[in-house]
Recover the amino acids of this structure.
């Protein structure tokens, strides 16, 4: 397998964590596509992922897999141990629902193309852009918090006492909110408790943006 | 099963179409939550879906299912015929990837809460807001178009010659772009060909926003 990603990309982070949780190794180090410099629009990358977003995962001679959630589901199906979805359909629906709150309703609002449109096309200044990032990052976590607070399936992790894809997505969204959005996360204590549990696991910690090749030295320190 | 939705909601549309494709019937007519009037924030609805978004699907005595993609996957698992995901993991990854382009990177950018934030918090005028809706709605379809153009799995529908969840999501995104965003869709001919195929099927047509209880008379005509 070959993974095209970027140190800072949270969609790449989700794939990185899932590979690590399942003990899957890439055939070569993750290939960096600098989405802050616009390299995702290079012709060579567009041929791999016509949406010009990361990640893209090459698994065979066919076109790369695309979209992080689709890749996570693929890894779950093709490397089922340890399971990252519950055994029951209802449990899977809850885990996938928690994933989608982060992956659909949180993360896509703060990616580079959106920040750029706010700046260039709508003339939004930096302060308002930062508020936008913080607002939507936290909104997603607040929704997850309510589910964690009121549903009995919540355990040490989002769903029971072993990590699931919901934790992978929650972790990415906490990084979005706290580290990229500089949000006050004191209003989502259950989310943060789960995040701290996740970060005890090597798969989550070593996949963190700050620990990737390409991350600025002051973050890596 | 009980479905909380809204005539105009494209996430509700996706659930409606999937129920219809699988021949599943609700126990009572869809329950309307007027998201244009902010009824999703009413206490009664928040208890059903703490994120205050539609849809929510009640399937048993437990909390409702939430997030359209999670609901679609649940319906696929619990009512597997006709199958709306391919039999092979790679095919499923492609279909889910196409779904996510629409559900994660297209639709969440144009929902009422975002339009409201643009207006109220960023002071964006109506013309610029309309351009935002059109831009992001079409961007998602352009990405789908590239996949349809260059991947050999494309058939009469997105993936082969029978409808899949990718078609359900594509159809919702075409409605976003063409009907809500008033986009020129001439640049995505393969998407539109698939959409027209979908609309030949009763499940897609009768689920259309304009044909729902609550839609304005001029749309329903």
């Amino acid at each position: 397998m070959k993974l095209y990603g970027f140190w800072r990309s949270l969609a790449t982070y989700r794939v990185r964590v899932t590979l690590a949780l399942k003990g899957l190794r890439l055939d070569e180090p993750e290939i960096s596509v600098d989405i802050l410099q616009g390299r995702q629009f290079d012709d060579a990358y567009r041929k791999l992922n016509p949406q010009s977003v990361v990640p893209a995962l090459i698994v065979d001679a066919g076109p790369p897999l695309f979209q992080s959630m689709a890749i996570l589901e693929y890894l779950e199906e093709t490397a089922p141990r340890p399971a990252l979805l519950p055994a029951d359909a209802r449990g899977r629906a809850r885990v996938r629902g928690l994933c989608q709150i982060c992956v659909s309703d949180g993360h896509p609002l703060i990616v580079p193309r959106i920040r750029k449109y706010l700046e260039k096309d709508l003339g939004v200044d930096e302060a308002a852009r930062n508020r936008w990032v913080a607002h939507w990052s936290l909104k997603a976590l607040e929704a997850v918090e309510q589910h964690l607070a009121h549903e009995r399936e919540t355990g040490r992790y989002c769903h029971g006492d072993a990590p699931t894809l919901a934790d992978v997505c929650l972790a990415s969204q906490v990084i979005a909110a706290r580290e990229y959005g500089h949000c006050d996360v004191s209003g989502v204590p259950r989310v943060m408790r789960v995040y701290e549990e996740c970060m005890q696991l090597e798969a989550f910690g070593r996949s963190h943006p700050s620990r990737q090749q390409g991350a600025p030295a002051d973050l890596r320190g």
Q: What stands out?
A: The CA atoms of residues 122 and 174 of chain A lie 27 Å apart. The beta strands of chain A are 2-5, 31-32, 56-58, 65-66. The first strand of chain A starts at residue 2 and ends at 5. Chain A has a mean pLDDT of 96.
